[in-house]
Write a structure and sequence with these properties.
Elements (H helix, E strand, L loop, with lengths): L10 E5 L10 H9 L3 E5 L8 H16 L5 E6 L1 H12 L7 E5 L7 H6 L3 H12 L8 H4 L6 E7 L5 H4 L22 E5 L10 H13 L8
Parallel strand pairs: 1-2, 1-3, 3-4, 4-5, 5-6
Helix pairs in contact: 2-3
Amino acid sequence: MGRGLGNETGRVVLLHGLARTSRSMRPMQRFLESSGFDVLNLSYPSTRYSIEDLASRLAKRICEESAKGGPLHFVTHSMGGIVLRQLRRSNADFRIGRCVMLSPPNKGSQVVDCLGRWKLFRWVNGPAGQQLVTGPSGLPERLGAVDYECGVLTGTRSVNWILSLMLPGPNDGKVAVSHAGVEGMASFKTVRATHPFIMRNREAMANTLAFLRTGTFLDGTL
């Protein structure tokens, strides 16, 4: 699942999204490592279990790193941000330094509202995918506000116009801009990136680095 972290002042855990693996986060991993951070890039079986179960399966490994002392930062993609919110809710003493969420469905996704009952969707995305509906019946809205320093970056470009038709207003093909933010976040910014590839987008990488270092995103665009 990745190597341990040794740099007490610059430790970052990466959590990928639904139906992805740690390979999808490798460009971000290499970028942050080249910027001086010690990175733990975790894989987890995102399509096999509920979000609560996924958070529970990750808890021991992450809490071991947290217990070493010093800030433990996070960069998450898509559902990885919801897994982190669930992990924090289930482990009240678990410390989070700064967190950058990339294209998180923090208020759910209308794509899941439309397709979540389809057998093919359930087969591909598993039980966690069905939990990402909007409104009070979805897990994301029930998790409440974040209580750690969190910045949200979300995209405004799409490579799937069919899915974009299911989303209100600007979106990245999976998550509407209006549904990416979360109560308690410190910063929010949009970038010209698509949902599947925001973690390798140059502007997203630069803003992620800025937030991890300073707690704020860059002004303007690159």
